[in-house]
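User: I'll paste a sequence; please echo it back and then give the predicted structure.

Assistant: Echoing your sequence first, then the prediction.
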Amino acid sequence: MITNNFIKYLLFLIPWFISALLFKSNTFYYESLSLPFFAIPSYLFGIVWTILYILISISIFMVYENSNKEYKKYLLINFISNQLFTFFFFTLRNNFLSLIDVIVTLVSAIYLYNETKLQNKKASYFLIPYIIFSIYALLLILSINLLN
């Protein structure tokens, strides 16, 4: 039983790392930009996102089996927008598309949180750090757009 649940959990976790495998995160690009005073060092992003992906996957694991179409729709939108950021920012080096993408990611994360909360309040708590960091990401990418 534990093995089956662990495998099932991994099936929710692993896809969140697809963009890291497909698109190289060029930290030199990030560091070459004019960054705001509140920008974190590039090496922290991998740590933060790994923790966030673990938390997101726990939330998904807790509700997915009994989830409705709205939940799955917001999850898919959020997943795609989250994955596209690395492509827009590091591959295309398009700060404006990255900004639009972060907005979509944040809004869809809020909708995902609300849908999750309707199904399992405890599972929704695992999404709160994701929303908070998405707000930070929005402020960061907005500042990068203004400074560069």
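Residues 2-147 form one domain. The mean pLDDT is 93.
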